[in-house]
Amino acid sequence: MLELGPAPEEPCLRADAARNRARLLEAAARLIAEHGVAGVTMEAVASAAKVGKGTVFRRFGDRTGLLMALLDHSGRQLQADFLGGPPPLGPGAPPLERLRAFGIAVLYRSAEQLELQLAAQPEACRRFSHPATQALRTHVTMLLRQIVPDADCELLAQTLLASLDPALIHHLTRQRHMPMARLESAWLDLVARVTRTRPPV
Amino acid sequence: MLELGPAPEEPCLRADAARNRARLLEAAARLIAEHGVAGVTMEAVASAAKVGKGTVFRRFGDRTGLLMALLDHSGRQLQADFLGGPPPLGPGAPPLERLRAFGIAVLYRSAEQLELQLAAQPEACRRFSHPATQALRTHVTMLLRQIVPDADCELLAQTLLASLDPALIHHLTRQRHMPMARLESAWLDLVARVTRTRPPV
Fold first, then answer.
1. What distance in Å separates the CA atoms of residue A118 and residue A127, rounded to the nearest whole number?
2. Residue ranges of the DNA-binding region (chains A, B) (predicted)?
C-alpha cells in the first residue's frame, strides 16, 4: 500500500527538483479527486503541472510508479503526523487519546484515497508484510503497550488495524452506504472495548 | 472465498453422481494436503480418484472450478456446523460460548486450507461483499446482538471477522511464526474485550 521506509535519495534532490516533484504529485492528487484514478495519465499530469511529459516519465518511470509515489507521499505525511506532529495524533497527548485520533486520521485519509488505496493493495500473501502496514502496526502496538500492558498488544494492534482496512472502508461506505460518522463512532467504541475503558463523551 | 448460497442442483444429483463428486473433492483435498495447491491438476485428481479425466472436467469445468468447489464444500460444512451442529458451535450453547467456538473453528479451518483460501481471495473491492463473507457476518452479528444488544453489532462483527482473515492468519503463522495456540488465546481475549466480559479460565 504505502512505502514508508527511509527515502535516501530525497535529501539529495536539488530544491527545484523537489519542488517539481511536489508539484507533479499535487497535480496527480487533484486529477484523482476530479476524475478518479482512471483520470491519472502521464500526459494529464504533465499538462496539469505545466511541465513536459518527459519530466513526468523521468521522475516516476511509469503510471504505476506515479501512483505509488502518491501513496508513499501521503503515507509519509501520516507517519510524520503521528510520530512528530501536534497532539492528539502526535506525542504529548495520553496514549488513549492518540490511539483514538490515529484511527480517525486513518479512516478519513482512506476515505479520501479509496480508489488509489484499493488499486494499490498488494496480493493476499503480502498484504500484512508490507513496510507501510508494519509502520502503522508498530505505532499502534506501542500505544497499546502503554494502555493495556498485560494484553497481547501485537495481536490487538492487528485487529484494530484490520478494522481500518481500506477494502473494508470501501465496502462499508460505498457498497453498504454507511456514513463516515458511523465508522468514526465504531472506531471510538472499539478502542474503548479493546482497552476496557469508556468511550469519550 | 467460499460460495455459501443455496446449491439448488445438489439435491437433483443422482446418488452415484453425488458419490463421485464427493470422491473427487476428497481426492483433491488429499492432493493439497500432500503437495500444496500446485499439486492439484485435473489429471492428478482423476488419477487419485480412479476416474477418467473427462469426468473431472465434466463435473468442475476447469481447475479453478474444482478449487472453488472444494472451498465451497468446506464452507457449507462450517455453515452447517454453526447453524445446526452440536454446541458449543451450534445452537444450544449460550451465545458467548458459541462466538468463542466460532472463531476457533474458523481459525483452524483456515490454518488447514491456508494456501487454497489465499489463492481464492477475491480482489480488494469484492472481498467483503462475497456471499461467503456475508454468511459469516450474519452469524456473528446475530450472536453479538444477543450478548451486547446496545452495541453497533454489525461493525463489531466486521472487526471480529477481520481478525480471522486468512491473509492475516497466513502472515501471523507462516511469516511471523506464531503458534496457533497464541492466535486461539488472542481470539478468546478479543471476544472478552469486545463483549466486556471475562475470558474463559
1. 12
2. 41-60
For domain B1-68, the CATH superfamily is Homeodomain-like (1.10.10.60)
Reduced to 3 states (helix: H, G, I; strand: E, B; else coil), residue B60 is helix
Question: Considering only alpha carbons, which residue of chain A is nearest residue B118?
Answer: A124
Provide the ipTM.
0.83
- What is the pLDDT, as a whole number, of residue B12? 58
CB burial class (10 A; 0-12, 13-18, 19+) of residue B65?
middle
SS3 state of residue B93 = strand
Mutate to test the interface with A, among B168, B172, B184 (most CBs of A within 10 A): B168
B contact set with A (CB within 8 A) = 118, 121, 124-125, 127-129, 151-152, 155-156, 158-159, 162-163, 165-168, 170-172, 175, 182-183, 185-186, 189-190, 193-196
In chain B, ranges of CATH 1.10.10.60 domains = 1-68
Residues B131-141 pLDDT 10s: 888 899 999 99
| Each residue's pLDDT tens digit, B17-63 | 888 888 899 898 888 888 888 888 999 999 999 999 999 999 999 88
